[in-house]
Amino acid sequence: MSLADSDRELVVEELGREPTPAEAALFENLWSEHCAYRSSRPLLSAFESEGEQVVIGPGDDAAVVALPDSDGDEETYITLGIESHNHPSYVDPFDGAATGVGGIVRDTLSMGAYPIALADSLYFGAFDREHSKYLFEGVVEGISHYGNCIGVPTVAGSVDFHDDYEGNPLVNVACVGLTDEERLVTAVAQEPGNKLVLVGNATGRDGLGGASFASEDLAEDAETEDRPAVQVGDPYAEKLLIEANEQLIEEQLIESARDLGAAGLGGASSELVAKGGLGAHIELERVHQREPNMNALEILLAESQERMCYEVAPENVDRVAEIAERFDLGCSVIGEVTDGNYTCTFDNEAVVDVDAHFLGEGAPMNDLPADEPDQPDTALPDADLESAFETIVSSPNTASKRWVYRQYDHEVGVRTSVGPGDDAAIVAVREAETGLAISSGAAPNWTDTAPYDGARAIALENATNVAAKGATPLAAVNCLNGGNPEKPDVYGGFTGIVDGLADMCATLETPIVGGNVSLYNDSVAGPIPPTPTLALVGTKAGYDAPPMAVDAEAADDSSLLLVGDLGLEAETFALGGSEYLAQQGGSDVFPNLPEEPTALIETIADIADDDATLATHDVSHGGLAVALAEMVTADAGLEVTLSTDDPIGTLFHEQPGRVLVQTSAPEMVREAFDGIAPVVDLGSVTTTGHLEITTGEETLETDAATIAGLRETIERELA
Fold first, then answer.
1. Cβ within 8 Å of residue 144, ≥6 positions away
2. Catalytic residue numbers?
3. Which of 314, 329, 41 is nearest to 195 (CA)?
4. Cα 198 to the center of its chain, rounded Å
5. Tell me: the pLDDT tens digits for 672-698?
6. Stretch 329-339: mean pLDDT, rounded?
7. Other CB atoms within 10 Å distance of the CB of residue 219
8. What confidence tens digit (pLDDT) does each residue in 407-417 have?
9. From residue 651, how far is each of 478, 480, 576 by CA, in Å?
10. At a CB cut-off of 8 Å and minimum separation 6, what does 429 contact?
11. In whole angstroms, what is the distance from residue 458 CA to residue 441 CA?
12. Which residues of 174-204 are buried (b: 16+ CB within 10 A; e: fewer)?
């Protein structure tokens, strides 16, 4: 990829001369889609990002949100960030995914926060394809290796398989950090005369052109030809950097900070000073290097990992160097903040001299045509209930993800109260006596069927996940993944997911405080489905939550209720976007969403925290049938009776915003949801370990052992 002719003309007009090779490369990377959001920024104003708890919204390395504080003392802040490493994870799944984790953790560090939790949302081609399995195994290994080595727990996430990710998988990683007002740092340079200090690993030639590589379709030979654009991670150096950064923040030695990610040193340092309306002078030969004979362009643009750029007051530079040496990290004083242009020299020769704001913000936006997605026809397959149940429960999309999360250390840091495998994770923020619930994911079947309504459903689904564990949504970040935006049908679908996510989050009064956009996820196999990953956090008093599994000890004194539509009307149990249609074939429109989502979520959270509630479980992928199967254990079973003329539609439609509740006070639940959502008595809890579902004249019977066997698809296939 090279600087487009139209962009070069703008640069020449601004500079009054032809750009140097280093300048041209800087503009190529920083004006790329990956960095400048040229096709997506015009759409992002749809998101509401302000709120009472929002301290720093979009635009920095990570967002900052204040947690509700029960005693009114000094507020505790969390940081939220999410990043994609899609193209690198196709070329080199292990390093591509690992460095995605490293990058989002450093985004957290640059805000003066200590990372306390990770969530990963992963998307691959059909599970029965060997190449998909290869990518899947490599990505999970990369994430687990990096996260485990740095001691940050991976507590939540999602895994989806869909044919259209075959040529371009997605790896989206979110990070939550912890800080407060005294520790808070931003990526806004403060004052001319302050020094720019590079701390961390030495700079090599890895990752050259990573930003521009991420801004074009994957070629057929990408796995070999684009390997130099993929960074190589060193989690042990990152762990040292985490602890060094903590010491620097504690001693208040940092004026501003930026991690070195896309476009390397050039990207981080120019963005840092541009945000402060300032400039910089950098002497590139001062950068500590690990490879011989590196030229100016390589030093400027290499995306070598585990590096931070700090703005430091002159009197604190020596102390910063001492701390870096203590943690066995490299440290270079590479230049200083100025009130002029962004300039770089190499061996006393000027190689860059541009206005930092123009470099960072001067890229023209794209005005692209967008085609409205077509509504699918209704063409439903025939299937018997028993075979459909077995097929859907054993589908890789709905099957257990234990094979994935057992590789993650999700308890390191001793904050994890509810770990992976439940509707949402909960980590204990003892500093604020608050439980922080985390849910992250998307639903490619939903947004492939209906981009706008599917994205609305994804926002509601993540909110329902945290509410089912008793938490109230606080804020969210998104990772908006799409194909080549120059294709009108692709851009139309992308526009739909932006608007859908924005509308539902606004309805739920959950601000979108930051995010990431990844376009050109396109290959010879075609574009990916529009994929709006949402990482949403909620808060609750305390750290406990009702379990997913039903409680056999309360079998005689409790009922199983469904909050939400059972699906007795055609517009409710539409099967569009369902795993049932994905497995059986056919098409349908997407189901209607609940009419009162805000009150619904608030009430679900209240009921989940009630002492009479014994178990809760969100109904989502795979529908009611899968949710019921997931609640059964060897000791606890369910006897369910459904009054329906369409058991397939009732059991497998995927309308979001529904929750199963085991309660000893069913009347209290009905009263709480009066006028908000239907409440259906499904049946009773038993001590048999069996699941029995009766629908009219047909009864489906199975047991916990059989269900567990069906749900071991991933583990069994990868053994």
1. 154, 407, 408, 409
2. 34, 85
3. 314
4. 28
5. 999 999 999 999 999 999 999 999 889
6. 98
7. 12
8. 999 989 899 99
9. 30, 30, 14
10. 67, 76, 78, 116, 178, 415, 435, 436
11. 8
12. bbbbbbbeebbbbbbbbeeebbbbbbbbbbb
